[in-house]
């Protein structure tokens, strides 16, 4: 019974942390935590939203490379909403029939099949869990890198807008 109570309380604590991020409450996370980067991204996009009072003025900003400021503004807001509330359309990992396309390489697939033939029960599950854990860590590192870049983009766009409208930076 204690095990279920521990899981329930951990899930509730996680939900509360995410709610605090969404509400922009003061929370503290390790600077190495994905939640820290998520919080910074959400806060900066909220600041950008509060600063950019007339989004159409972004169309007057000079375009840097392929980055259209108005499109960037919209994309950052959409990503924040998707991060907090999900429900976005499936990404390109979905095939035309709605079936998930595997991201496992041919080598991974062969290794997985070979592990199942080892004759040692449970070995395949342990190897699969270890592989999944490493994939998760790799994806979290990539997500943190993306969130930091997106936060920097929101900061830059906010400053450019402030300069355009003559507001103090």
UniProtKB/TrEMBL annotation:
Q: Where in the cell is it found?
A: Cytoplasm; Nucleus
Q: Which GO terms describe its cellular component?
A: cytosol; nucleus
Q: Where is this region: Disordered?
A: 88-131
Example of a GO biological process term: regulation of lipid biosynthetic process
Supply the Pfam families for this chain. Spot_14
Give the record's keywords alphabetically.
Cytoplasm, Nucleus
- Taxonomically, the superkingdom here is Eukaryota
Q: What are the Basic and acidic residues biased-composition ranges?
A: 94-103
What's the family?
Belongs to the SPOT14 family.
- Can you say what this protein is called? Mid1-interacting protein 1A
Origin organism of this chain? Pieris brassicae (White butterfly)
């Amino acid at each position: 019974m204690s095990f279920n109570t521990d899981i329930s309380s951990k899930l509730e604590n996680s939900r509360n942390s995410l709610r605090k991020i969404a509400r922009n409450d003061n929370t503290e996370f390790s600077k190495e935590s994905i939640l820290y980067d998520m919080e910074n991204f959400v806060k900066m996009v909220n600041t950008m939203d509060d600063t950019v009072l007339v989004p159409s003025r972004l169309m007057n900003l000079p375009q840097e490379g392929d980055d259209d400021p108005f499109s960037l503004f919209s994309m950052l807001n959409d990503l924040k909403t998707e991060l907090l509330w999900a429900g976005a359309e499936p990404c390109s990992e979905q095939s035309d029939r709605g079936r998930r396309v595997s991201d496992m390489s041919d080598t991974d697939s062969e290794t997985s099949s070979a592990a199942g033939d080892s004759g040692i029960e449970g070995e395949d599950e342990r190897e699969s869990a270890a592989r999944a854990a490493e994939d998760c860590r790799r994806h979290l590192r990539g997500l943190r890198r993306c969130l930091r870049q997106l936060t920097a983009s929101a900061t830059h766009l906010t400053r450019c807008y402030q300069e355009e409208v003559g507001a103090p930076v």
